[in-house]
Amino acid sequence: MIAALPENEGARLAALRAYHILDTPSEARFDEITHLAAYLCGTEFAAVSFTDTDRQWSKSITGTDLKETPRELSFCAHTILSKDLIIVPDARLDPRFADNPFVTGEPGIRFYAAAPLITSDGLALGALCVFAMTPGNLNEDQTTALQTLAYQVTELLELRRRVAEQERLVGERDLAEGALRQEREHFRSFAESLGSGILMTDLEDTVLYVNPRMSLITGYTTEEMMGCRALDLLLSPEDQETMRANNHERSEGEPGSYEIDIICKDGSRRWIEVNVVPYRDKTGQVVGTLATNTDISARKALESERDLALKDAQERADRDPLTGLLNHRTFYKRFEEEANRAQRDGSILAVVMMDVDNFKFFNDTYGHATGDDVLRHVAARFQALCRQYDCVARFGGDEFALLLPNVGATPAVDIEARLRAGLENITHLLPGGQAAVPITISVGAALLPHNAADRSDVVRRADERLRRVKTGGAIEAEADQVRASMTGRVEGFSMLDALVTAVDNKDRYTRKHSEDVMWHSLMIAEELGLDEKTRHTVAVSALLHDVGKIGIPDSVLRKPGKLTEAEFETVRQHPMMGSIMVGAIAGLEDTLDAVRHHHERWDGAGYPFGLRGEETPQIARLMAVADAFSAMTTDRPYRKGMDRSKALGILRDGRGTQWDPECVDAFLRRTAAVRPPANDGAILS
Questions:
Q1: Cβ-count burial of 644 within 10 angstroms (0-12 exposed, 13-18 middle, 19+ buried)?
Q2: 21 and 157 in contact (C-beta within 8 Å)?
C-alpha cells in the first residue's frame, strides 16, 4: 500500500531542505545512534531515514548498504503520517506493507518499528527505525529507548542547522573584513574615511595620530589619546606585556596581526583585530608603527554563542533528558576513565547497579507521568547520597548505576548496606493528594579489582548481585534446581513455568511469591516428617500453584484497593483454572490437590469447594499456611510487607479456624529455629 501524502507536505519538504541533510556524507554521531538503536532493540538493522519528494534517503544505516529507496516502497513514508512510534510485529500481516516488494521479496522485511523525527514545529522529516527479517516486537524499555534516540536525532539536526547558520554569518563577516583589509591596503593614505580605527605610534608607544573611527571604538577623543602611551591607556597590565614584546618585533621591520581585548573609556571591553606594520623615515629606518583596528566584538560574541551551543548540545547528549543524570553511553565512558584511574593508582572502584522495585506498577496503575515523577524523585535521592566526584547515571528504564571511586577497604556488602540505609523511607505522594506510596530500591555492588579483575566483567557482576538481591539467592537457587529437574522429566512443565513468568510480568510479585511459598511449604513438610518424594511434589506444586492467575484481568490482578464482589469472584476462579492447566500435563497429577485446594479453609469457609478440616488434602493444607505467610510479609508496590512477628501472630490466632492447627504448629516450630536464608555477599567474594 502506497502511503498518503501528509497534509503539510509542502511545509514538511521545505523544512527538510532547510536542514541541508540530504545527500550529505556519513557522520559518526548519527552512526552511533543507529548502532545503539539496533543493539538496544535486538535487531540487525537500524536507520536514520528522511522522506524526500520521491525517495527515502538514509543518513545512517546499519546492517545493509541500501541508502536510498523509492518513496512508494518506503516504510518511512507511513511513519511520518504518525506523531507516535509505530510497531509492525509482522509486515506480512499488516495491510500497509503486506504487498511491499521489500517484504514479499528481498530482503524479506518482517519486523519494523520506527519513531518519527519531528521538528519543534511539528513537521515529521523522517524516522529512526529498526527492522529485522523475522517477526518481533519491542518491550517497554526498548520502546522508550527508541523514542529517546529519535529525540537525540532531532536535536542533532537542530544543532547542525544552527551551527551552519552561525558559520555562514561568521563567513560573511570574514569576507567583509577581508575586503576591508584589502581596502585599507589600497587606500591607506585616506585614513580619515576608513571604517577601521587608525593608530600611529612611535617606538616608545606614544600616540602620534588617531583617526575619528578609533575614537568611536575606544570612547576617547582624539585629543585625549594624542601624546598618551597607547598600551597603558587601552590594555590590562597582563596584555601590555604581551603587546610590548610584539611591538619590539615591529621595530625590527616585521608586520603582525592580533586579536586583543581593549578597555574603553567607560570601562567596557571590546575585541579588536589589530593589523600592525612598521613605518620608516626617509632613510629607511623604522621609527614607529601604524595599526589598523577593527571592532570584532560582534564576531567574538557569535563565536562564543556557537561554543556555548556546542557545549550545551554535548551536555544534553551526555544526559538522560528525564532525570538529568548521565545516560547509559556516558556511564560507560566514565567507567573506562575511572577504571583506568583505579588501575594507575592501585585504588578500588565500586560499581553499583540499582533499580526501582515494582516500577512497572507505577506506570501501569498511575500512568507514565507519575512513573516519570518517581524516577525524578529517586534520581534526586541518588544525587544527594553521592560524593561530588561520584558518578550517578540512569542505566535505562528503572535501572540506575553508580561509580564510586576510591572506596578503600569497604566491602561490597557494606556499600550496599549504606546505600540501602540512605534510600529508606522514600515515598511518593500520588496525584490528587492520595496516600503516599512506598518506593523501595534494590542494590547490587561489585568491586574492581576485588570481585572482577577484568573490568569488562565488573558491571555484569554488580548486575548479577542486584538480581540475586531482588529474588533471594538461596531460595532462587533451590527453585532453579526444581525447575531444572522437572524440565528434564516432565514435558510441558517449562510451558507452565513460562506462564507463571507471564503472570509475574503483569504483576511483579507472583514469581518471587511462588518461590517463597515453596521454601515455607518445604519447611512445614520437613517438620511434619514427609518423605522425599512428597517434599518434591510440594516444591513443584508451590512453583505452579498460582499459574491460573494468567486468566485474571490485569486491572483486577494489580488493583491496589479492595476488590468488588465481582472482582473477587474472578480471583476465586484461579485455583480451578490452574488445576485444569496442570491436569493437562502428564506427570503432574500429584500436584493437582495443592493447585486446586490451596485456598480452602479449615473451617470450610474457603474456595473453590468449601472443604472442611481434613477433607482438604494435606499438601493443600500446608501450602495454605505457607501461601498466607508469604502474602502477608512480601512487599507489594502499593504497601510494605507486614512485620514477620505480626504475621506469625495472625497464623497463631487462625489455627483451627482458617488453617490446619498441625501445619501452623509445624511452621511456628520451624520458624522459631530457622530463619529464611539471606544473601551473604558470596557473589562478591
A1: middle
A2: yes
Asked whether 340 and 405 are in contact (CB, 8 A), the reply is no
Dist CA 132 CA 274 (whole Å):
60
Name the nearest CA neighbour of 575 among 603, 546, 616, 615. 546
Q: What's the distance, Cα to Cα, between the start and end of the chain in Å?
A: 60
Q: How buried is 78 (Cβ within 10 angstroms: 0-12 exposed, 13-18 middle, 19+ buried)?
A: buried
CA-nearest of 74, 153, 147 to 119 is 153
Query: 681 is written with which cell numbers?
Result: 555477599
CB 536 within 8 A of CB 521: no
Alpha-helical segments (H) within 328-411: 328-345, 359-366, 368-385
Whole-number pLDDT of residue 189: 54
Q: Give the CA dihedral 660, 569, 567, 501, nearest 10 degrees.
A: 60
Grid cell, residue 62, equals 546499519
Q: Tell how far CA 432 is from the center of its chain.
A: 28
Average pLDDT over residues 320-325: 87
Strand 349-356 vs strand 441-448: parallel, antiparallel, or unpaired? antiparallel
- The pLDDT, as a whole number, for residue 183 is 54
* Least reliable range by pLDDT among 170-179, 514-523, 648-657: 170-179
Q: Are 126 and 76 in contact (CB under 8 A)?
A: yes
Grid cell digits, residue 151? 529525540
Nearby residues of 521 by Cβ (< 8 Å), 6 or more positions away? 538, 539, 541, 542, 622, 623, 626
Per the document, the length of the chain is 685
Q: Is 456 exposed, middle or buried (0-12, 13-18, 19+ CB in 10 A)?
A: exposed
Cα radius of gyration (the chain) = 37
Element containing residue 575 per DSSP (H, E): helix 574-583
Beta bridge partners of residue 248, listed in sequence order: none
List, for residues 613-653, the tens digit of each pLDDT value.
999 999 999 999 999 998 898 876 666 778 889 999 999 99
* Interacting residues of 204 by C-beta distance below 8 A, sequence separation 6+: 229
For residue 635, the surrounding DSSP H or E stretch is none
Residue 422 CA, chain-centre distance (Å), reads 23
**72 vs 83: CA distance, rounded Å:** 20
- Whether 89 contacts 135, CB under 8 Å: yes
Q: Which three cell numbers stand for residue 321?
A: 533528558
Cα 511 to its chain centre, rounded Å, is 26
3-state secondary structure of 32: helix
Alpha carbons 113 and 43: distance in angstroms, whole number: 10
CA dihedral 374, 378, 384, 390 (to 10 degrees): -140
Q: Provide the grid cell at 137.
A: 516486537
If we measure between CA atoms, which residue out of 78, 129, 88 comes closest to residue 110?
Answer: 88
327 versus 424: the higher-pLDDT residue is 327
